[in-house]
Design a protein that fits this description.
The protein is of the alpha/beta class. It contains 7 helices and 7 strands, in the order βαβαβαβαβαβααβ. The structure holds NADP nicotinamide-adenine-dinucleotide phosphate. Keywords: NADP, Oxidoreductase.
Length: about 240
């Protein structure tokens, strides 16, 4: 660990794309702060990554926890160069009152969680220049029956990211990553049983890995500061 190593903060670092991004950025020379609710998972990942990796239990719907995370990152890693807003839930199902708790959770985690995390880390990101990477989705481009509120959170993230890009340029670059199906545990949390079973079939045979997405994030961040890759839309080659 050297004082010149950049620092990346990754939300939802306990599994899937977030954990893979942490591994990829650590391999690229970043010190990483791993944020998630499952402390056991991020503690194990921090131990695996070693030097400089920090596990911080934080729910992105809890602003106080995020403010405490900012203070720890400042004290223990010296600030933030990159923020990856990755924490998310995809609670699909037919639109109905029975799913109302899912709707609130998706808006609070996927959209408001990313907005709040960015708002509390913004001063650190602006200090010396930085990057914000927002993990959106193909669902931020194309809505389908049964994914309306999930899509709304990702469309919201896309609009917010474009505004943020214009406000923060040139010192803070904003990148939107829009994956199609990636083999993670995302689908396992769907509460509408029939929907979960249908979606799970697609995830069981998913070929794009979290590492594939993490590599793209690392590549994007490694571009010279004069160049900003603002949006990356990626799908499995066979996804319609
Ligand atoms: N997999 C796909 O097909 C796909 C496609 C497009 C976009 N995405 C997006 O990619 C992102 C990562 O998802 P994934 O596929 O890697 O799924 P995942 O393995 O289920 O990861 C989701 C992460 O979000 C965290 N999280 C959930 N609620 C949280 C909260 N309230 N506070 C803090 N962290 C929270 C989870 O950690 P804890 O439970 O430990 O808190 C977990 O680390 C999401 O934004 C998702 O919408 C995924």
């Amino acid at each position: 660990m050297t004082a010149t190593q950049p620092v990346a903060v990754i939300t939802g670092a306990s599994s899937g794309i977030g954990a893979a991004t942490a591994r990829s950025l650590a391999a690229a020379g970043y010190r990483v702060a791993l944020l998630a609710r499952r402390l056991d998972r991020i503690t194990a990942l921090a131990a695996e990554l070693g030097d400089g990796a920090l596990a911080i239990e934080a729910d992105v719907t809890d602003r106080d926890a995020l403010v405490a995370a900012v203070a720890r990152v400042q004290a223990e890693l010296g600030g933030t160069d990159v923020l990856v807003n990755n924490a998310g839930v995809m609670l699909l199902g037919p639109f109905s009152a029975e799913q109302r708790n899912d709707y609130r959770q998706m808006v609070e985690v996927n959209l408001l969680g990313a907005i709040t995390t960015t708002e509390v880390f913004l001063n650190q990101l602006k200090d010396g220049g930085g990057d914000i990477v927002n993990i959106s989705s193909v669902a931020g481009r194309t809505a389908r029956a049964g994914n309306g509120v999930y899509a709304a959170t990702k469309w919201g993230m896309n609009g917010w990211s474009e505004s943020l890009r214009q406000e923060l340029l040139p010192d803070v670059r904003v990148t939107l990553i829009e994956p199609g199906i990636v083999a993670t545990e995302l689908s396992t949390h769907i509460t509408h049983e029939e929907t979960r079973q249908g979606v799970q079939q697609a995830y069981d045979v998913a070929e794009v890995t979290p590492d594939d997405v993490a590599e793209i994030i690392a590549f994007t961040l490694a571009r010279p500061r004069r160049l900003a890759i603002n949006e990356v839309l990626l799908r499995p080659a066979g996804q319609a």
